[in-house]
Design a protein that fits this description.
With 199 residues, the chain is an alpha+beta fold. The chain is built from 4 helices and 4 strands. Helix 1 packs antiparallel against helix 2.
């Protein structure tokens, strides 16, 4: 009788082990996604913090340096918005800053190996939100206050950071509906600086 119970326990364990392993991998993937999402939020806030200093601060370097432990600050990871990329530094108010398409995964601006993207655009803050909150009218991607482009007089700035997350487990891939999941974080800030002569 005892050997039958032991045999039954072994069979039950063998049947439940694959489910437990899938569950464990799913938990690890969700923890990775949560960690990277926190890093992206920090990167968006870092870009906003540096954007309020002046119209010539290097928003790009500050966005990319914030998640340094989680995401490498190199061109293969950040694409054209990476170091020495076309939309890298944003050091003048007339220079396009960040991805010109707003970091949309399907817009063709992403390279095959690119994992991260940032974009900025100026905006007019909603009257009800005061100096912080949400924007009502947006400029084109890559614009910042004081660049002479519409909307004129805009004193708000939106910073968006996107990370292309690839789950390791097939269970999570099926759950999210594909091989990749876009982690998106946005920060809004009111800028109140005088436009420099170089802008």
């Amino acid at each position: 009788m005892r050997s039958n119970r032991r045999g039954q326990s072994v069979i039950e364990f063998a049947l439940s082990l694959p489910v437990l392993i899938l569950l464990m991998f799913g938990i690890v993937d969700l923890a990775r996604a949560f960690y990277l999402d926190i890093q992206m939020a920090g990167a968006a806030r870092a870009g906003a913090r540096y954007a309020i200093q002046s119209d010539v601060t290097d928003i790009g370097s500050n966005v990319r340096n914030e998640p340094a432990n989680a995401i490498p600050n190199d061109t293969s990871t950040w694409g054209n918005a990476g170091p020495a990329g076309t939309y890298d530094k944003c050091t003048t108010s007339g220079q396009p800053c960040g991805d010109p398409g707003g970091c949309v995964l399907s817009d063709g601006n992403w390279t095959a190996s690119q994992l991260g993207c940032f974009a900025i655009r100026k905006c007019t803050l909603n009257a009800s939100s005061g100096d912080s909150g949400s924007c009502g009218t947006f400029g084109a991607w890559g614009t910042r206050p004081g660049d002479g482009k519409a909307p004129l007089g805009a004193r708000g700035l939106e910073v968006i950071v996107v990370y292309r997350f690839s789950p390791e487990s097939t269970t999570i891939r099926k759950f999210v509906g594909g091989p990749q999941l876009a982690l998106i974080q946005t920060a809004y800030v009111h800028v109140d600086y005088t436009v420099s002569a170089s802008g």
